[in-house]
Design a protein that fits this description.
The chain is 46% helix and 15% strand. The chain is α/β, with parallel strands linked by helices. The structure holds NADP nicotinamide-adenine-dinucleotide phosphate.
Length: 380
């Protein structure tokens, strides 16, 4: 039995995934030691976490208030996250920041041979080809935290025998609403996700199904799967987290109650499994039925947009990610309607000149340019 505690850093410890990861770690204190915690601007919560977990470093976003903490070295911004990810004392880094800020530290951790538990899907949407190749070259494991990819990771034995990935989607708060109702949805309605309690950006992406689109791109990179072999199926109960179809027609799915604790714990503990935070078991008899239906691409056109950007490849997914994120922020700030997130992203993609194999510098350059242009179009 392995008695050495695994050393872990959590980037984004104040967020939805980050706080749930700490709840998981509370149950696994004999298994893990926390090296670093990072926040964006929520220095109050970071202070409380620092008092409890006593990390070696804390990091906050550039320009955030200096956290009032004792005993931990205080770091700032992208440089600070890179410093955490350069510390080879880490066995694993949970990348649970939101947005493009996750990409650079992930690359730094891989360069230093440190395994990654990856929640930040933007990393693979922006630079999946580079990240996956680098991880392979360095022998680094990237274990997905997203419940769908975690499910697939658990189901796959031999990738060469797999014909198809079946990614489930709850359908979000507007599943059976009309297009007109979706177009005029309020921020409050869009944030009321029926199954998952998540950060605001991903919750809006779930309402438009762009989140599923980003997950298709993530799955393409993680499992080296053609887009034509990745299917999305709506499953409102969120019990089947995803499935794979083997070439002999066998389908293997991973099931469980909808809780992010399980995939977080799986990702940070892999290849071991612990009882840890085990939530209630799924009761098949009580559930009685599991429903499935095809997505409505007319009501949720963001899904097709993401498929097409993925198929085009290169910088198309960088453009998709940046334009969508800026439009989501504009919606959250009451500047545009929900459906305008799609029309804006579509407009940006149709005018984007795709670069086939962008370097990391080019990716950040394109990301910046698209964000500026999107804000200009939206007049925000
Ligand atoms: N929530 C879920 O269930 C879920 C499921 C699958 C995948 N994911 C993915 O996991 C990531 C995190 O999602 P979330 O729902 O946990 O988001 P969230 O609740 O908004 O948390 C985001 C975290 O990132 C930090 N952060 C934001 N901007 C930053 C910046 N510029 N510099 C440094 N730190 C920054 C935040 O800090 P402050 O709050 O202190 O500002 C917070 O700790 C996303 O990529 C999301 O797509 C989430």
């Amino acid at each position: 039995m392995n008695t050495k505690r695994k050393k872990i850093s959590i980037l984004g410890s104040t967020g939805s995934i980050g706080t749930q990861a700490l709840e998981v770690l509370d149950k696994l204190q004999d298994k893990f030691e926390i090296i670093a915690l990072s926040a964006g601007r929520n220095t109050e919560l970071l202070k409380k976490q620092t008092e409890k977990y006593k990390p070696k470093y804390v990091c906050v976003a550039e320009g955030a208030d200096k956290p009032d903490v004792d005993g931990a070295k205080i770091l700032y911004g992208s440089e600070g996250l890179n410093q955490i990810c350069s510390d080879k004392e880490n066995d694993i880094i949970l990348v649970a920041v939101s947005g493009k800020v996750g990409l650079k530290p992930t690359l730094t951790a891989i360069d230093n041979g440190i395994n990654i538990a990856l929640a930040n899907k933007e990393t693979l949407v922006m630079a999946g080809d580079i990240v996956i190749k680098k991880a392979k070259d360095k022998g680094v494991d990237i274990i997905p935290v997203d419940s769908e990819h975690c499910a697939i990771h658990q189901c796959i034995k031999n990738r060469n025998d797999v014909d198809k990935l079946i990614i489930t989607a709850s359908g979000g708060p507007f599943l059976h609403k009309t297009l007109e109702e979706i177009k005029s949805a309020t921020v409050e309605q869009a944030l009321a996700h029926p199954r998952w309690n998540m950060g605001r950006k991903i919750t809006i992406d779930s309402a438009t199904l762009m989140n599923k689109g980003l997950e298709i791109i993530e799955a393409h990179h993680l499992f080296n799967m053609d887009y034509k072999d990745i299917e999305v199926i709506i499953h409102p109960q969120s019990i089947v987290h995803s499935a794979i179809e083997y070439k002999d027609g066998s389908i293997i799915a991973q099931l469980g109650v909808p809780s992010m604790h399980i995939p977080i714990q799986y990702a940070i503990s892999y290849p071991e499994r612990f009882e840890g935070i085990k939530s209630q078991s799924f009761d098949f008899a009580q559930a009685a039925r599991l429903d499935f239906e095809r997505p409505d691409y007319k009501k949720f056109p963001s899904l097709d947009l993401a498929y097409n950007a993925g198929i085009q490849g290169g910088s198309a997914t960088v453009c998709l990610n940046a334009a969508n994120e800026e439009a989501v922020f504009a919606f959250l700030n009451g500047k545009i309607r929900l459906y305008d997130i799609y029309t804006t992203t579509e407009k940006m993609l149709s005018s984007h000149n795709i670069i086939k194999n962008p370097s990391i510098d080019e990716i950040f350059g394109i990301d910046k340019e698209i964000r500026i242009k999107t804000r200009e179009i939206l007049k925000v």
